[in-house]
Amino acid sequence: MSNLNMQTGSVVPKYDPQNPYAYPAFMPSSADSSRRSFHVDDFPVPTVKSEEWKYAPLEKMGSFFMPYDASGETAINIAYSDGSTLDDHVHLHRVTRQELEDDPDSSFIPVDRVSVLGWNAAPQLYKIIITGTLPSALVVTVTSASLSLDSLHLFFTIEKRSQANIIIQHHGQGRLSESIDIRVKDYSTASFAFIQQGDKESQYLCSQRLTVGENARLNHSVITLSGDIARIRMDADFSGANGYLNMLGVYFADHGEYFEHRPYIVHNYPSCTSRVIYKGALNGIDTKSAWVGNALILPQAVGTDSYELNRNLLLTSEAKAESEPQLEIECGDIVGAGHASSIGHFDQEQLYYMESRGIPENIAKKLIIRGFFKELFDEIGILDLGDQLLHIIDTRLEHEE
Questions:
Q1: How far is CA 39 from each of CA 16, 51, 70, 276, 347, rounded to the nearest angstrom?
Q2: In angstroms, what CA-CA distances link 250 with 181, 226, 247, 261, 285?
Q3: What would the mean pLDDT of 256-262 be, rounded to a whole number?
Q4: Would you say 316 and 287 are in contact if contact means Cβ atoms under 8 Å apart?
Q5: What is the mean pLDDT of the chain?
Q6: pLDDT tens for residues 8-60?
Q7: Is 156 a domain residue?
Q8: Secondary structure string (H, E, C) spanning the chain
């Protein structure tokens, strides 16, 4: 830490346990010593020796690491899933960076060079406030139509005692640096589903900040289905006791694609629960994924219950997955804490068994993959989203036949 201070010439204040992400302190975790700062000079250009970037194809991502003028060509549409007109439950504001930096509800602070450059360049910054109970799911569609580099910031506030289901879906051909800030206030319940379904050349780098209030519940799902590169980092903590955070992830990578997910959770209040379950399937040649998770339980987080799991299914021998679950416990009075991961190849014996009973190979393969993912899709619980996503995966597999 002292070396970094000498390089940047900045002073790091004493860390506040009630605000683990306080600007410009470090996250209190040996597994993640990343700086939080709005100043690009605090972040060196990543190299293959950078712990946070050691798996990423840096040679493909160079333009994200240097200052740029955002294209502003990313289109955003917000509507209810049933087609009804937005009502008084949804308040949409276009805001400035200074307004968000001064907003007491916002906890977002850039965590790496990509996110701070995206923050500084973002021509579109939106604050979306939800009050009461939404009549149907809110769908935010982000569409890219150009490979010119663009950036976007979305800040969601779920007000006290409110309920919301929100889907954020990404389509098109583009290179987007996106930052997301989600605050679920006390006694509220929110479900967010993020879907990445870009074109083959699309590159998507996202930094998310999640805060769960007292007796609040956040169901957070990330579904990454296509694109050249997708790298999503999620930093979460709590702002009161008895919070519940459920993080689900599904990724299906095909020929040449690279998907990386990094969920980090700080337990900083008593009696909070976190569940992290990510499953990925990799198919084709030169296909790679990386999953790095970390849960940190601070001394004051008495009664914490935390668990994280990552499973990877390799459909071809050329695919490669990396998995790093990490757990740090600084409190001796907890309900439970655990983590697990696995990387395994497609079960040929299971496939043979199904074929021997008259099921064609292509159908058997789909059934196995459906079974692998179905539990998570059922748990997402927004509309019939799970069935839609399984259909997308089926379609991608059919292209290999």
A1: 21, 20, 18, 31, 49
A2: 21, 12, 10, 10, 20
A3: 96
A4: yes
A5: 87
A6: 333 434 556 566 655 444 455 555 556 788 899 999 999 999 989 999 999 99
A7: yes
A8: CHHHHHHHCCCCCCCECCECCCCCCECCECCECCECCCCHHHCCCCCCCCHHHCCCCHHHCHHHHCCCCCCCCCEEEEEECCCCCCCCCEEEEECCHHHHHHCCCCCCCCCCHHHHHHHHHCCEEEEEEECCECCCCEEEEEEECCCCEEEEEEEEEECCCCEEEEEEEEEECCEEEEEEEEEECCCCEEEEEEEEEECCCCEEEEEEEEEECCCCEEEEEEEEEECCEEEEEEEEEECCCCCEEEEEEEEEECCCCEEEEEEEEEECCCCCEEEEEEEEEECCCCCEEEEEEEEEECCCCCCCEEEEEEEEEECCCCCEEEEEEEEEECCCCCCEEEEEEEEEECCHHHHHHHHCCCCCHHHHHHHHHHHHHHHHHHHHCCCCHHHHHHHHHHHHHHCCC
In a domain, 145, yes or no: yes
Q: Which residues pair with 343 in a beta bridge?
A: 312
Which residue is it, tokens 């084709």? 284
Give, in order, the Cα–Cα distances in Å from 352 to each of 76, 347, 371, 372. 46, 9, 16, 17
Residues 184, 279, 140: CA angle, nearest 5 degrees: 40
Number of folded domains that form the chain: 1
Query: Is there a domain that residue 103 lies in?
Result: yes
Q: Does the pLDDT value for residue 301 go beyond 80?
A: yes
- The residue among 310, 247, 299 whose CA lies nearest residue 273 is 247
Q: Which two tokens stand for residue 298?
A: 């601070």
Would you state the pLDDT for residue 400? Answer: 56
Specify whether the CB–CB gap between 226 and 195 falls below 8 A: no
Residue of 355, 324, 325, 321 whose CA lies nearest to 338: 325
**Alpha-carbon distance 238 to 227, whole Å?**
32
Dig out the tokens for 109 from the structure.
Answer: 């602070």
User: How much is the pLDDT for 34?
Assistant: 66
Domain that holds residue 16: 2-345
Domain membership flag for residue 83: yes
Res. 5: pLDDT tops 80: no
pLDDT band at 346 (very low <50, low <70, confident <90, very high): confident
Tokens 């889907």, residue?
167
Residue 386 predicted with pLDDT over 80: no
